[in-house]
Write a structure and sequence with these properties.
There is one protein chain. By secondary structure, this protein is α/β, with parallel strands linked by helices. It has 2 domains: 186 residues, 3-Layer(aba) Sandwich (Rossmann fold); 64 residues, Helicase, Ruva Protein, domain 3 (Orthogonal Bundle), CATH 1.10.8.100. Helices cover 37% and strands 18% of the residues. It is built from 12 helices and 9 strands. The protein has a 7-stranded mixed beta sheet with strand order 4-3-2-5-6-9-7, sandwiched between helices. Strands 1-8 form a two-stranded antiparallel sheet. Helix 2 links the parallel strand 2 and strand 3. Helix 6 packs parallel to helix 8. The radius of gyration is 20 Å and the shape is elongated. The protein starts with 8 loop residues before the first strand and ends with a helix.
């Protein structure tokens, strides 16, 4: 049931504690939990946060959560939504401002969707703590010094950090790969104070269109400035998109 929807339920209490620590939860916090599953993380979030909004797609799990947490729901500490997170708005969750955090053991296949949906939202979360695939977390944090469209996207809105690796035997059923706790802090739109958000991501999309090509070729039809930008931004003419940092992309965007 859960595995078909990409869910793997946590069984390691230390991992749960590490997720809670990364969230720096206080009693006034509202937490949005995506994919609560059997409620093991939900139960611990409720001990620390003021309110938890849990969005569960699986109808049987959503029904079980309604039963297991009946008293917390009655006390307005918890709201269970039987929905696909991609199909609802923040208004549906009753979250009205950016005074909330996303803390969740998410279905892995939704990682990119969730990051794009909420980091680019007008009401961004204060912080995100996601349990996701280790390789995805490493790619977002550029552990190998190679950048991607996803890593640039996330870094433009906040500071991603790989908190720790989580072994696959920490779950039931066990996933095929190891996982990691990904923390994103300092979420804002400050990066776009003097450049267009849309134009910046159009530039990124063009730059990463053909990964094996040199960047100057990928950008040749996107900007007339061509390799002149590379000199202004101190970028090698042979560079590929994966070699550029967020600072490099910002420089190109400002001079394009």
């Amino acid at each position: 049931m859960g595995e078909n929807l990409g869910q793997h339920f946590l069984t390691d209490n230390q991992v749960i504690e590490d997720i809670l620590d990364a969230g720096e939860i206080v009693a006034s916090d509202t937490i949005l939990e995506i994919g609560p599953g059997n409620g093991v993380l939900t139960e611990n979030l409720l001990k620390k946060a003021g309110r938890v909004i849990a969005v569960e797609k699986d109808p049987k799990l959503a029904e079980k959560l309604q039963t297991d947490f009946e008293s917390q729901i009655a006390a307005n500490k918890l709201k269970i939504l039987h929905e696909d997170i991609r199909d609802i708005t923040l208004e549906d969750t009753e979250i009205r401002t950016n005074n909330y955090k996303i803390i969740a053991n998410i279905p892995y296949y939704l990682t990119s969707d969730i990051l794009q949906q909420f980091l680019a939202h007008e009401n961004q979360p204060q912080r995100m703590v996601l349990l996701t695939q280790k390789e995805v977390a490493k790619r977002i944090t550029c552990a190998d010094d190679k950048h991607s469209r996803l890593s640039i996207f996330v870094q433009a809105y906040g500071n991603p950090e790989l908190v720790r690796v989580v072994k696959k035997n920490s779950f039931n059923p066990s996933p095929k790969v190891d996982s990691a706790i990904l923390k994103i802090t300092n979420i804002s739109r400050d990066f776009f104070a003097d450049i267009s958000e849309k134009a910046f991501f159009d530039l990124i999309r063009a730059g990463f269109q053909h990964k094996r090509k040199q960047l100057k070729n990928n950008l040749s039809t996107h900007t007339k400035s061509g390799t002149k930008l590379f000199g202004k931004c101190d970028i090698k003419k042979t560079a590929r998109a994966e070699n550029l940092t967020l600072k490099d992309w910002r420089c190109i965007a400002k001079h394009a």
